[in-house]
Write a structure and sequence with these properties.
single chain, 247 residues, 0% strand
């Protein structure tokens, strides 16, 4: 157990020393929040259902942070560890493979929670964001969305032949998800054509579930969202395990 925590702590330090990973995890969502919050403020607005803009979008920005870690960072980070031989060396140690995988996942969860807390602090203390929902459901929506996006990230890492390809895969998939799912710009203001496309984007359902938890405190009518996220998580996890390479 001590080796597990030492490994996790070391990986967190390495993660936060990487400028791109630290920026997209800790700074990107708060900066987007400040940008759009400065434009729209947080007064009640009809185009976001009568809520304040920040009230209505803070939960969606949680999905943005998840996307940043799961799809912009995990594929590159894992591919880099494989390409530099770190995965091979770790496998040669007395540590079980499962210990490394769990420490790796824990690292990404901890930095995700840190990024989420920073973003929410900006929303609450900078713009007076209000929470109207259910904390338990929000936590479950957070876990389910994280599970799905991380599984996709590990799948991209498994199939990418190099760090460069993993970077391309992650940025293409990650930014498509980020800007077409409602995680950055509210779905209500996106053109109808984009809204139709968003139905085929998994993160859309994470945004919906997080917003329902934050604003209504209920998952009523969100059975499809739960099903899509669970399906993506299980299928991508199985495929990632199938194509996983240590070297």
């Amino acid at each position: 157990m001590r080796a597990f925590w030492n490994l996790a702590l070391t990986q967190i330090k390495i993660y936060l020393r990487e400028p791109a990973a630290a920026f997209f995890t800790l700074a990107w969502a708060p900066l987007m929040l400040i940008l759009f919050g400065s434009i729209y403020g947080n007064d009640p607005a009809t185009f976001v259902g009568g809520y304040g803009f920040i009230d209505a979008t803070t939960a969606a920005y949680i999905a943005m942070v998840i996307d940043n870690v799961g799809l912009l960072t995990i594929p590159v980070d894992v591919a880099m560890k494989r390409e530099t031989g770190m995965l091979h060396r770790l496998r040669a140690t007395p540590l079980r493979s499962s210990t490394f995988i769990l420490a790796d996942v824990l690292t990404y969860i901890i930095v995700l929670m840190l990024g989420t807390l920073i973003m929410c602090a900006v929303a609450v203390f900078g713009f007076g964001a209000q929470f109207y929902g259910n904390w338990g459901l929000l936590f479950l929506a957070f876990l389910l969305t994280t599970f799905a996006m991380y599984a996709m990230g590990y799948l991209l890492a498994a199939i990418a032949p190099s760090v460069q390809v993993a970077n391309i895969f992650g940025f293409i998939v990650g930014f498509i998800m980020m800007f077409l799912s409602g995680a950055t710009i509210p779905m209500e203001v996106l053109p109808p054509a984009v809204q139709n496309i968003s139905r085929f984007i998994p993160l859309t359902y994470g945004v919906r579930l997080l917003k329902a938890s934050w604003l209504q405190g209920s998952w009523e009518g969100e059975g499809l969202s739960v099903g899509v996220l669970l399906g993506v998580a299980l299928i991508c996890s199985a495929l990632a395990a199938r194509f996983w390479r240590w070297e």
